[in-house]
Amino acid sequence: MLLISRNYLIITALSISFILVGMSINSELCLAASDTEVAYVDDEFAEYDEPIAVINDPLEGINRSLFKFNHNLHTWLVEPTAKAYRKVTPSMFRTGIVNIFDNILEPTRFLNSLLQGRFVEARETFLRFLLNSTVGVCGLMDPSTYDGRELHERRFASTLAYYGVGSGPYLVIPLFGSTNLRGVGGLVGDTVASPSWYIFSDPLVVVVVKASKTINHTSFRLGEYEKMLSGALDPYIAVRNAFAQHQLQLTE
């Protein structure tokens, strides 16, 4: 009975995400088209410019508050904890943790590569997962990279983008950071497709695993966040623009 209820909640969440994301397609395309037309009229050199991501941020007031919460959390908790963790933890151990989390995500990447018709990438991802899970001792090591097999970062959000689903409004989620409506749908899809969803089914365990992954990841990137924002007049705008430019690469 519990399994049926859980599957029902998953299907319901996915359905709501797809419906909401789908509703954003037409409005976003119209907005993008109008912005492009204005840019070309006002700028005689516009055709030579790099593509500029359209940012739809109707919830900027709420997003700024959530951004401030995430910013303070990173500054006062995540970064100091990661510094202390780095001092007492060997680099080899921390690299092994990164490899394990990357390996757990390989089935999700494999599925999304198939959905996007990238069959060569899907084959390479499958072989990466097979090699790292066996020779690499459950993903602790990464022999696939040394063997020349590239990691292909395909997520469900990029699959939605591949099929023309609009990004929808920009959102900031507590603890997760920048995303958009399509990203929320992608997060749901990736979560359901990931083996960790079934391995770590307890909500408390999920939180602990997510926190551990964040601290371990940050230990390799100490100071990068502060450096990125050091010259920004408005940190919120800087992070939002960086996220928007990243979205342009989803369907490449």
Can you walk me through this structure?
- With 252 residues, the protein is mainly alpha-helical.
- It has one domain.
- Helices cover 69% and strands 3% of the residues.
- It is built from 12 helices and 2 strands, in the order H-H-H-H-H-H-H-E-E-H-H-H-H-H.
- Strands 1-2 form a two-stranded antiparallel ribbon.
- A hairpin with a 3-residue loop joins strand 1 and strand 2.
- Helix 2 crosses helix 10 and helix 7 crosses helix 8.
- It is globular and about 50 Å long.
List keywords for this structure.
globular, 252 residues, disordered N terminus, 2 strands, mainly alpha, two-stranded antiparallel sheet
The coarse silhouette is globular
The number of strands is 2
| Count of DSSP H/I helices | 12
Q: Radius of gyration, rounded? A: 20 Å
Low-confidence stretches: 1-51
Largest sheet: 2 strands, antiparallel
- When the domains are counted, the total is 1
Structural class: mainly alpha
Look at the structure and give the mean pLDDT. Answer: 80
Q: What fraction, in percent, of the residue positions are helical?
A: 55-70%
In order across it, which strands form the biggest sheet? 1-2
SSE ordering: HHHHHHHEEHHHHH
First-last Cα distance = 43 Å
The share of residues in extended strands comes to under 5%
Helix and strand arrangement:
Layout: H1 2-42, H2 60-88, H3 91-104, H4 106-115, H5 119-134, H6 143-146, H7 156-162, E1 170-173, E2 177-180, H8 181-193, H9 195-199, H10 203-218, H11 224-229, H12 235-247
Antiparallel strand pairs: 1-2
Helix pairs in contact: 1-8, 2-10, 4-5, 7-8
